[in-house]
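> forwarded from #structure-qc
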């Protein structure tokens, strides 16, 4: 076993410790929230420009604000509504909507009711959403109007569901009905077989069953579902199911709430579904301590306090999925720090405008987001001409050299004599950015350098998982780390070790210093939900470590770098091992290739590749075979450039032009991880054709 060094708090990018401003993770959500309301009562807590529920129907040209004091009135109203509906301790309450002030306020309100919040990804797909909601036996769901039809189309498959609470009033009955019918048909394998019982909301006639079984369901009409939706909208109730609108009238709210009695920070408070890369999502049970441990362990002396360096209130932009552990932990930690949380307008295509209006001081993201920003900047530099490109390159080189010799500059990321060259980049990030946070995985070296030098902000990187509440390894701004793809050192009060896994990999810990990454600390969750909160499936070993399934390499400075997922190595025909993730990373370093998927077969001598390219770089070439040849040469060049063995170079390629697979949730998780299993399914035919080409 090798143990990672503890991340120190004397790195250039760290803040002076103000102990009374560091949140306490060993508190419940109501305790920490009420402390924040008391401490920051008159400060802004939430900002929105698309309504309280982030609806495109309410898009405005400027942000509106909710203070910490007024936020308590909203929470009070939601708590009162839930209690009027007879919510009970440990009831599961799903939240299925876009990021919005009401999302976070409903989440907090659920904790005041001592119930369990279950965030739901819209991008899980309707079959997984139905599975997740049924699995946790939810009684309540908060839902955005744009996905209400999804819920109504699956209600017959969720026997426990009693109350649907819509977050806004912009509900189109006709559109909702059409969506409900489509969703019902997608789930028809289970729904058609339903027998008559007291839980059923509607029954299909023999005619409808036969029509569904025989017809093309794309345009099929389901009268029973349409009738059910009409009755629900008209009466607000059908059998066991009730439809409500969330209570947001705070005109007479007192803004007073009592702490729930008997609630502890270790009580189950949430069930988070993993965005796993294979199989059904796993249900991870976490408590309040886990929720706050992410910020308390990863953000200690790193994330700003209530006031930014410039003297204004610290603020953060919310656009990453709130159903994901990273963003949810980030927002709960934000109000503990006294931040103002700006919510995006609900469409990532408007994110640039949202950032320009919000002018946040903190930007959270993941490597793929920052890689996309980097690529966009590089294109603009190339189009600006030779002189402008040269000035940018020289300024970047000189600033990097200056910062390496004056490490105190990593505290702000600013060096005034060079930063005028990078002013447009800073303006594109809102103009007030002081901290950039990257989570989920290590940044590519060129993107890391870009953010450190050209963003004029300080950078912090973190590595964690759903099961560890996003806690684990950390790199502080300016911290000397040996490896360019490092995940960093152990975060505050967290222990990270490597263990030998030569049983399932080609590496040994003794020879290669490579083993599986294990994490132990306050962020590690309670267990996996199996249907009973009292009988959780254990997710740690007997020593309290969570086994991540990731291979890491130990370095002499005590840091750990990411090698690959244990499951992503394939053996070729002659016994050579191919690391598919390493191969894809090398290929995606090419400016021509936006996304790459590789596949290897043990009966073949080389891998194959399926790629999406930026066609603007090859716009003068119309012959598809010539494009394929160019891309194969490009792949060969970048694989060799990365130092990967020549037998790993793909010998056949399928090229797609200008396809953004990143937004396809069958192919990428909400945290931007490739779902290789689904790639293999989606491109089964193409894979077989490519494999034949290298016979």
């Amino acid at each position: 076993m090798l143990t990672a060094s503890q991340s120190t708090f004397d790195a250039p990018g760290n803040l002076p410790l103000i102990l009374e401003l560091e949140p306490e993770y060993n508190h419940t959500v109501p305790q920490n929230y009420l402390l924040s309301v008391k401490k920051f009562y008159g400060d802004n807590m939430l900002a929105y420009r698309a309504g309280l529920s982030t609806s495109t129907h309410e898009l405005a040209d400027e942000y509106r604000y909710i203070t910490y004091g007024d936020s308590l009135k909203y929470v009070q109203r939601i708590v009162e509504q839930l209690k009027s509906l007879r919510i009970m301790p440990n009831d599961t309450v799903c939240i299925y909507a876009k990021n919005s002030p009401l999302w976070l306020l409903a989440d907090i309100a659920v904790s005041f009711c001592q119930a369990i919040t279950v965030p739901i990804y819209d991008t899980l797909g309707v079959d997984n959403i139905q599975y997740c909601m049924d699995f946790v036996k939810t009684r309540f769901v908060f839902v955005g109007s744009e996905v209400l039809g999804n819920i109504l189309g699956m209600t017959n498959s969720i026997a426990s569901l009693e109350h649907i609470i819509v977050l806004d009033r912009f509900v189109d009955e006709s559109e909702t009905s059409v969506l409900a019918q489509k969703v019902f048909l997608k789930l028809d394998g289970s729904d058609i077989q339903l027998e008559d019982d007291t839980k059923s909301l509607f029954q299909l006639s023999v005619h409808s069953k036969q029509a569904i079984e025989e017809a093309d369901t794309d345009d099929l009409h389901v009268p029973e579902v349409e009738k059910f939706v009409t009755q629900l909208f008209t009466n607000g109730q059908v059998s066991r199911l009730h439809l409500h609108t969330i209570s947001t009238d705070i005109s007479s709210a007192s803004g007073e709430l009592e702490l729930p009695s008997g609630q502890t920070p270790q009580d189950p408070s949430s069930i988070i579904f993993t965005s796993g890369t294979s199989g059904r999502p796993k249900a991870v049970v976490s408590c309040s301590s886990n929720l706050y441990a992410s910020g308390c362990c990863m953000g200690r002396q790193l994330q700003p306090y209530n006031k930014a360096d410039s003297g204004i209130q610290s603020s953060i932009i919310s656009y990453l999925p709130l159903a994901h552990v990273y963003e949810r932990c980030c927002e709960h930690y934000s109000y503990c720090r006294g931040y103002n949380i700006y919510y995006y307008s609900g469409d990532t295509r408007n994110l640039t405008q949202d950032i320009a209006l919000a002018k946040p001081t903190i930007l959270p993201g993941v490597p793929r987001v920052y890689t996309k920003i980097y690529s966009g900047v590089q294109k603009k530099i190339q189009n600006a001409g030779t002189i402008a490109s040269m000035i940018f390159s020289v300024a970047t080189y000189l600033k990097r050299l200056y910062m390496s010799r004056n490490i105190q500059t990593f505290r702000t990321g600013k060096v005034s004599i060079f930063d005028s060259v990078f002013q447009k980049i800073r303006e594109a990030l809102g103009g007030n950015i002081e901290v950039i946070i990257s989570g989920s995985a290590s940044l590519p070296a060129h993107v890391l350098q870009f953010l450190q030098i050209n963003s004029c902000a300080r950078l912090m990187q973190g590595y964690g998982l759903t099961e560890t509440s996003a806690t684990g390894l950390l790199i502080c701004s300016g911290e000397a780390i040996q490896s360019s793809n490092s995940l960093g050192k152990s975060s505050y009060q967290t222990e990270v070790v490597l263990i030998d896994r030569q049983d399932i990999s080609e590496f040994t810990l003794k020879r290669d210093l490579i083993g599986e990454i294990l994490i132990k600390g306050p962020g590690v969750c309670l267990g996996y939900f199996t249907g009973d909160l009292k009988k959780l499936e254990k997710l740690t070993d007997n020593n309290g470590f969570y086994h991540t399934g990731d291979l890491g390499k130990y370095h002499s400075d005590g840091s750990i770098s990411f090698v690959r997922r244990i499951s992503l190595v394939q053996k070729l025909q002659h016994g050579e091992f191919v690391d598919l993730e390493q191969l894809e990373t090398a290929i995606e370093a090419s400016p021509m290739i936006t996304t790459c998927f590789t596949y290897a077969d043990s009966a073949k001598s080389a891998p194959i590749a399926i790629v999406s390219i930026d066609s603007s770089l090859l716009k003068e070439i119309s012959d598809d075979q010539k494009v394929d040849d160019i891309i194969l040469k490009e792949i060969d060049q970048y694989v060799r450039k990365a130092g990967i063995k020549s037998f790993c170079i793909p010998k056949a390629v399928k090229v797609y032009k200008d396809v953004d697979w990143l937004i396809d949730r069958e192919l990428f998780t909400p945290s931007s991880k490739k779902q290789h299993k689904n790639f293999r399914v989606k491109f089964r035919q193409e894979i077989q054709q490519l494999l034949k080409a290298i016979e």
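QC bot note: The first helix runs from residue 29 to 39. The CA atoms of residues 247 and 664 lie 34 Å apart.
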